[in-house]
Amino acid sequence: MKTTAPVEQSITSPPAVAGSTLSTLVAMIPASVMLTVALVELVLANRKYGLFTGGFGQSRAVDSLPEMALFFAGYAAAMALLGVAGWAFACRLARGKPGWIASYFFILTNGILFCGLLAAQYQLHSYFSDAVSFALVKQLGGGSLVDAIKYGLSEIGIAGLAAVGVTLAAWLLWRQLARFMPANSPSARGPGYGVAAASVILFLGTAYAVPRSGSDAAFGLNRTIAWQGMTRLLNFASDLDGDGYGVFSTQYDAAPFDPARHPLALDVPGNGVDEDGFGGDLELVPVPAPLPKQNFTGHRPNVVVVVLESLRQDVIGKRIGGRPVAPNLERLAAQGSIAAPAYSHVGFTTESLKSLFSGQLVPSSRAPSLFRDFKASGYRIGVFSGQPEDFGDISATVGMRESADVHVDALTLQEKRAFSFAAKGSLLVAERYLLDAFDRTMGKQPWTEPHFLYFNFQSAHFPYYHDGVKLRFTQRPLDRGDMTQERAKDVQLTYWNAVAEADAWLGQVISRLKALGVWDDTVLLVTGDHGEDLFEDGFLGHGHIINARQNGTVVVTNRPGLLPNAPVSLSDYRAFLVAAIKREAAARPAAVPFMHIGPLERPTAIGMAGAGRTLTSLRLDTGEVCFVEQGRCAPYGALNLTDRSRVDAVVARWGSERWRQHTIQMHR
User: pTM (2 decimals)?
Assistant: First the structure.
């Protein structure tokens, strides 16, 4: 009987990767990943900030050979330490497992996660640029973190979907690699102690030396994720005196064992010590004294204040296709008086309105205000606002709701809101509903007592368009997601179309006052709460940097001679109106407009306007000074005596404002 050899059963198995080839690939992956993400980051940073090319507002470019050498030394040290730490972590996670698993973990953490951070950073900055901070995002929510999260809910939702997609892709990749990679390959080896120690020492040396070099390289490195993140950890660890500042940043603590001396410290006047590091020992300068409570007697004219959201200072004279954007506002200015620019101290709605109604830079919750003045003086008070006036504690601070006989705002008219967003800061009610509410409550009966009315028109609030806005200057208003630098002209047309909408409703207010027969006995004041940047310098919005577009707005009244020919700020308005009611000459403001980004105690930047439209700003976090009207910026330490004196005047005003606030709090 013939026998045959058994046929060997064919089994399909995944091809094995040669051991030597696999080891070589595993060894190359960390360096390849770090080089790739570094290239991506530097390209993005240069495109956004002009990191190596510069530009207005970005004067600290890394554009000389010494600066580039210092920058790349610091950047390489930071990325090397991040790579060594990431590889050690990946090897720890994959201990006892095939070597390719460590590479997989490294790609996830140092590759995909790093790129995710870059994507999040530059998507955020596409709207807000480099001035964005946690405090700024909270400010967008009126001081409420919950509202800030709601405000950016659409971006958060997109990021969440992206995270889910990346997670799914990583899981599918793992499944495929597990099928084809050999299960018996040796484990990957982590970096040795010598390599780890060398990378730590190299980074510590550059992190300490670069900020003290005075080079633009230090500011360029702060644009990068690894350097910024690790120096923040080092600053926390080196904050030996507990004053919130360490020794490893551009804002380093020059007195690490003295908690009274550090950046942004309260400078005590006349003690011979420069606590904050700017301007020498503080010499107090005059600051505006707040008006006391007012009680108007005798003949009392009606007063109407109309706030047009995000109204730029260049609205007067603005023409598109030969047509005026704001004809009603221009007619009012021609008949009465105008001051432009009028400066918002902070560049945000909540704080701007508090200053406007209280006449103070930083009012307390029970400070005197126009609402309290008019209530005490027997006025009938009406509030008709397209935003929620409880947002950011506006109403509570100035006594709005408690004083009003009629109070209509975006919360009471939520069913009429233009958008479906849940955040208070995103509620917006169109002007037509406000005028309807006025007609129902105060527009029918003759006025037998003096009235104070406050209208807030929100059409020009980002994203500058909602259903019902008439298309006067554009036939294709942009959606929020389409507002990019590349479409700046379309963004601007959408914005100016919104301003024209608000101006048209201003005309309706004037018509109603005339129909009621009270126009001749009414003081009307129209202003913006702040301005708006429309990508002129790469910025969209307000409150990010100090300049005439973001902080500057305009104030117009129907009374000739009411407004002085001088730089004014929103906190001056209460004094103007008090003078008008008392038939007194308008007084020149006691001090020129002062501006700050962030809380007065710990601002990111401060600024001050002067005659001839001069505007000086100082970034306290970087020491960068900008003479805005000249388009010129320079480091504080490199200024000549003339420029230094101009900046020190800003520092003295800031210190004096802070010292007064400190004194008030001490005596409460």
Answer: 0.76
